Amino acid sequence: MPVNIFEVIKAENAGRRGRVAIVDGDRRLSYGELIASAESVAVELEKAGVCPLGRVGLVCGNSADYVVVSLAVLSVGAALVPVSPEHATPEIAAIMAEMAADLVVFRRSEYTAEGAVDLEPAIPLRAAFGVLHRAGNLPPAPGYAEIAPAFIRFSSGTTGASKGIVLSHRAIIERTDAADLGLGITCDDRILWVLSMSFHFVVTILLFLRRGAAIVLLGEPFLDRMAEGVSTHGGTFVYASPFHYALMTGSDLVPAGSLSRVRKAVSTTVKLPEDVASGFRAKYGLALTEAYGIIEVGLPFIGTRGERPGSSVGRPLPGYRVRIADPDATGTGEICIAGPGMLDAYLSPWRTRDGILEDGWFRTGDLGSVDRDGFLTIVGRRKNVINFAGMKVFPMEVEEVINRFPGVRESVVYGEEHARYGTLPMAKIVCAGETFDIEGLRRFCYERLAPYKVPKGFELVREIPKTRSGKIRRL
What we know:
With 475 residues, the protein is an alpha/beta fold. It is built from 13 helices and 27 strands.
């Protein structure tokens, strides 16, 4: 019988059922309650049509409910397709169509869908949830069932072609075990969590649950909740972005000495700026740990800033190998990684691991170099992807929306480096007339795109540079 990550979590916590698993405001779930709640929700999901090998979209913000519903979907043997509620309604519908979701489970306060039915209100969820059945999906591709998919992460390629990254239960188990060699999670840890579960879940939340740690969902306002997390909840482990660490360093709400119980603070989502790393260490006496993760690969690098001068993300964790493809004279080239828990397939168009990896190696699209001691330094991206506070913005997708606004002749979306957010999406626009309503365009974008995808600045220009073949020359 294929392995199931929910059953693994259940078995590994058999002796910890009374320990706290999730803290969500005034709500606390023990491991026994979490497992029982997931099993109860699974029964109702099966009644609603969720079945093994099905694809289930989940639209829900950070909450204990998110964890319960996710585990319920996984327990049934269906594949979870997470979608952030920050996406605009048309975007969510398009993603569900692209990922061929059979059903969409959503928190009613965050999403609406015509034709949806209520999930049984008696089940142990704090909020009201709906279920939408989707029709007309194609049958699974050959080999899909053999993979035993657990998780499908939507991602758009730089050419505009969409794809879903498929991870099996086995791959999730392998990559959580591998990541823990760098994180060292135990049942005594109190995880202070701030990132979106829609984007960060497999290698983190599922690992924390496997090890029996308590996950404290901080919520907003961030600084108030962080202060509460370290004082009231005795946080020992922080997983956040450079933006969050910069806020902590500059605020009196989280004073020096308040992190005395924190054994590790991990920075992820974007490159860790040196001023943020040094400022945090100076105030708290704790060196930030930088994690370099890729959804297709896992979390192969977890390095403490200060181990090596400069911006190295460290050496690969045990089990992972790294090589540089097509290096230039300085040794810089495309970063390739091999190791445990690699992706099993791309959903659209369907490609299995054997057709993706090159002799076991995954080409990341990132550029970097490895020194003679094995430390990796990342210098940039080969792909035209904008990474804004840990969320990827694909220029062509945003340009397609901008170009539909009346008066826009053409546009180009590009990234502008920012010390806190990583990269800001910006846009240059060629308009068709002498006057142009920039504020109207801004509203137009917010109505059709997730807020983080909307350019933070719009500039009117006379022309956009092109290549000789007439294609936009990317900035």
